[in-house]
Write a structure and sequence with these properties.
single chain, 43 residues, mainly alpha, 0% strand, elongated
Length: 43
């Protein structure tokens, strides 16, 4: 596998992971609010 193809696959994998994370956040809004509150209290 050449470097260009590897970079392209890694980019697609990262984008897919981000989209899955956003989808998971919509399924559990309470967990997202708890995390946001914890981060806000640390600032």
């Amino acid at each position: 596998m050449n470097a260009k193809l590897r970079k392209r696959l890694l980019t697609w994998a990262a984008a897919t992971a981000v989209l899955l994370g956003v989808f998971a956040a919509y399924l559990q809004p309470d967990a997202v609010m708890t995390l946001a509150n914890q981060i806000w209290l640390c600032i």
